Structure formats: C-alpha cells, structure tokens
Amino acid sequence: MLNSQEIMARAPFRSPIFFVDRVEEEEFPTIKGYKNITINEPYFAGHFPGKPIMPGVLQLEALFELCWLLYSGREERAPQLELRQLKRIKFRHPVRPGDRLDLEARELERQGDEVWVAVRSSIAGETACEGQFLLQLR
Predict the structure, then answer these.
(1) CA distance 124 to 114
(2) Residue 93 appears among annotated catalytic residues
(3) Residue 97 pLDDT > 70, yes or no?
(4) Is the pTM of this model over 0.90?
(5) Torsion angle defined by CA atoms of residues 32, 111, 92 and 18, in that order, rounded to the nearest 10 degrees
C-alpha cells in the first residue's frame, strides 16, 4: 500500500496532472489504487458547466500513472514509460464529483521492452473505462 506522500516521492507526476491518491494493492503483475473525484478539480469548470463529468482522457491518464507506479516499483531507477498504443478502450459510465474512481492495471504480455497491460477504472464496482495499453519500457 502506498499513500499520497509515498506515491509523490516515487512518481514524476505533480498536480494538477496527478491522478492516483492511493495504491491499495501492488503485487506484480497487478496494481490497484484509486482517485477521489472532488468538485474542486479544475477541469469541471468547463466539462460540463452544470453537469460536471471527468473527461475520458483524464481517466486514461490516471490509468497510465498507475501503470507507471507498477513498473517503478520493480526497477532500480525510475523507468521511462511510453504509451505506444490504445486498444479496445471503452467508456461505459460517467465519472462525477463525489465518486471514488477505482483503478487497476495488470500486465498481460511482454515482448522485449514492449508490454500489453489491461486497464480498468470503476465506480462502486461498475466499470467506467476499460481497455488495453501497449507500453514501451526503457
């Protein structure tokens, strides 16, 4: 388990582009964490006025950050992780202020320095977003 201070000590991400509040489970090849969604998030001002919804691309960013944490815990030095491809990305449920966005990533397949990772975000067990990332580790 990693709290926000431990995550910030390990990760290069900083606010306002920092979307993992806590890592609850980290046992390779799987990692699980979450982001508490508050009305104070800056993107809610324009997305959408009167009916705030977390942009899908920011859900993908949160999942990418979780992947980075999965691999940073296995390397002696911080990895260089590049998102090469998205596959089968589906947005199934809107994310709104007050939600806890649960995040999970699991390595599926590795070939050399490229790895496929299954990612999923959910709210109270209901899938918000799911798909796969092709990542390049360096």
Answers:
(1) 32
(2) no
(3) yes
(4) yes
(5) 50
91, 25 contact by CB (below 8 A): no
pLDDT digits (tens, 9 = 90+) for 29-80: 999 999 999 999 989 988 888 899 999 999 999 999 999 999 987 766 667 8
Least confident of 48-62, 74-88, 94-108: 74-88
The closest alpha carbon to 23, from 34, 12, 15, belongs to 34
Contacts of 107 (CB under 8 A, 6+ apart): 28, 29, 30, 70, 115, 116, 117
CATH 3.10.129.10 fits 4-137, yes or no: yes
Q: Are 65 and 20 in contact (CB under 8 A)?
A: yes
Q: If 0-12 CB within 10 Å is exposed, 13-18 middle and 19+ buried, where does residue 35 land?
A: buried
Q: Is 122 helix (H, G, I), strand (E, B) or coil?
A: strand
Active-site annotation holder among 10, 22, 47, 106: 47
